[in-house]
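Shipment paperwork, digital attachment
Item: protein structure file
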Amino acid sequence: MLTISSSEDLVARDRTEAINSYISDMLSLEDHIEKAVRSQLQDLKDYPDVVNTLRDLHHKLEHHISDLRSLSDRRKASGMAGAVKRAGSAVAGVAAGVIDLVRSEGLPKNLRDDYTAFSLATIGYAMLHTTALALNDREVAELAQVHFADYAGVVIRLHKLVPAAVVRYLQQEGFAASESVLPEIGRTIEEVWRTQSGEAPATRGMATARNL
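Attachment content:
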C-alpha cells in the first residue's frame, strides 16, 4: 500500500536528517582526534606535565564520544561511513593548510596539531549548536553547547603549553633559549585576545619549559 507523507512530515524528517548528519560528522571528528591524542600519550611520555594535560583532554574526548554515540543511537542517525571520510579530509585539509612557522618535531608540533584539531572541533560544535537551535532541537543544542565550552577551555589550556614547549625544544636543540620570556608571551596572548574580542583567555600560571 502506497503511503503519502504530508509536507509537514517531510520537513520534519529533512530537519532531523540534517541535524543527524552534523552529529555523525562530529562523532567521526572526535574519533579521529581521540586516536591521535591516545598515541601522543605514549609518544610524549618524557614530558609528564604535558601527558597529564593530554590525559585530561583524552578523558574529555572519551566522554564526548560516549555522549555523541548515545545520542546518535537514540536518534538512529546514519551515514557514519561518509562522516569518517569527511572528518578525515577535514583534518588533513586543515593540517595541509598550516604554515610550518615552528619548524620542529616532537612536542611543539604535537601540541600545535592538537590546537588545530581542537579548534576545528570547537567551531564544529558552534555550528552544530547553531543548526540545532535554528531548527528547534533543544536537546542537540544543549549538548553541543556543553562540548563547545569544553573545547574552548582546551584551546585556552594549549595557549599556556605551546610557548613553553617551543622553548623546551629549542633548549634541547642546543640553543640558549631563555624561558624568562614566557611571562611576556603570556601577557601578549592575553592582551591580543582582550583587544580582539573583549574576552581574554587566562594565561596566568603559564607553563614553564622546565616543568614540561
